[in-house]
Amino acid sequence: MSNDEINIEVEGFDGSVGGSSEQIEKRKEIIDESDEDEVDDPLKPEMNEDSLITLENIYEDRMVFDPYDNIHENGKLNFATKNNKNYLKIFSITWNMMGLSSPNEEYLLSFIPTNNYHIYCFATQECERSIGTSVIIESKAKWEKTLNSIMGDSYIQLESCTLVAIHLIIFVRKELLTQISNVRTCSVPTGLYNQIGNKGGVSISFKLGKRKFVFINNHLPAHQENVKERNESVKRIIDSIDYEGKIQQQPSKTKVNPAVSQSNFTLFKRADRPDILKKNNFVFYMGDLNYRINGNRKVVDKVLKMNDLKVLQLNDQLILERKKGTVDLKHFSEGEIIFPPTYKFEKNSNQYDLSKKQRIPAWTDRILFKPSKKGKIHLVDYNFFPQVKYSDHRPVYALFLVDCPGVILETTSQEPNASTSQVCLVQ
């Protein structure tokens, strides 16, 4: 970022952090650990073609472990005949925006299917500004204003939550607002000494009818070799997310109905608060999780040219860590990955990283979900938006139908497209 850009950003700052321009610049350099700034680790063992698992030497193990084995197939849902009146339709998207300014409304409307779902969840990382600048100016007002505009009059911003450059915002259809209660937000920094929010997670939770929903947006540690650090961050975020704890005295600053909003930014020990994974909650865990593909660039490029996504999935760090039980996501499910790696692209291009660093393509951007003990989730579709070349990440989306008895649901403009969707039933 140039000095001119820094001066423009700092102009509107209220001075609560303080310091000269030199001090501000130094502070930004320490904190601004974007995925863009990855460096090679000279101590990391060199990866070669032999380190990449192939179908030939893993085939039998594949039959023992299916990374999607906790997703129960239910065949194709017939949206024309199935009674959907108690099924809540949810659209969720995760997108690392590379610290760029918010795109305009026309651009967003070219790929976001507005007015089709009851709940919209937008999870972004490096949103609106770089991580370093967001430490000083955290506001995501422009992004929120743009989203409010494209959502239109049929929806209301339920709540938003920001941690430096990590941002989460939920929209609901207006007729649902009177049926929603206990809206809370929580932020969990996992950066330097677990105090700095350059990495971490934010959540929005609420009760709708008889069901509790928890949406969590994460930006986990970068770099190929930092698997353990990512696993530790996941555990800290899940252990620290609070949705029934003490209430912050200050009212929410968002447009949410104050009657249902309760903001919470206090971390609680496990013994002091309910466990979101064991209660009757629907939990959606998404973001730039930053798990990579084991191998080297030459071999991964070769496999990509063969369009053999299964080989890459067998080397995907998140799938491998879930298999080993070393990441605290055993209660979650993930749809089958039918799209190519979503990172790292050249901007406005379909080419993966052409820089000297030659980053290995990876599925850094993911959406996982956990059903309620008493409720079901139908995963309708899990895919990416290939046409969105705005940043070095491609946005990933998931569409859900959620069992939600006791809630009066108005019919939205159209049903999810069953003819092109993967449908899974989790219960």
From TrEMBL:
Positions with biased composition (Acidic residues): 1-12
GO biological process terms held by the UniProt record: phosphatidylinositol dephosphorylation
Region described as Disordered: 1-23
GO molecular function terms attached to this record: phosphatidylinositol-4,5-bisphosphate 5-phosphatase activity
Domain Inositol polyphosphate-related phosphatase: 86-408
One matching Pfam family: Exo_endo_phos2
Name this polypeptide is given: Predicted protein
